[in-house]
Amino acid sequence: MTIENTAAEAPASRASLLPNALIGLSFLVVAIVFAASSSWYDTFLTVHILFVVMWIGGGLLLTVFGIKAERSRDPAEMSQLTKMAAFSGERIFAPSAVVVLAMGIAMVLNAHIGFGHFWTIFGLLGFASTFIIGIAVLSPRARKLDALLAEKGPQAPETLAAISEILLIARVDMAVLGLVIVDMVTKPFS
What we know:
The protein is mostly helical. The chain folds into two domains: 1-37; 39-186. 88% of the residues lie in helices and 0% in strands. It is built from five helices and no strands. The protein has helices at 3-36, 40-72, 75-110, 118-152, 157-186. The longest helix is centred in the middle third of the chain and has 36 residues, at 75-110. The relative contact order is 0.11.
């Protein structure tokens, strides 16, 4: 990137800041007005669902792009995707997961549902497993992959193998999260 490119990008970045801030503020104001007319439970549910959509929707999109990148066998595309996934995992998915958990607990407490039902236990175990996979498996592998990309490049067999492993683990993680969603909606064995 040259100095001219950096200088040209700076005004465009600042120019989009105001519209983005206005869109975000408008969303927040209208959401607060809507929430003010509903129960605490419905407010917790709304926040819960919004953050589930950000977390799971983003993860599903990355999963689809991961399959596309693997099928194209383009090392540059695969390495770029894993960088986006690492960024998203740390800055979007992990914080969203914490909000999802907090709102889920708030709903159970607010509605006096209790944690002894199969569907709540399954949901908490599913959440715990994917959270642990994210922190203990995917995050360290993403750091290792960054080192491989820097040291050996995106076309090295070790790098491609590491990318494929991460994408496979992420697919399993998405399947578990999908089952948690089905569990939460259907409340089996209740």
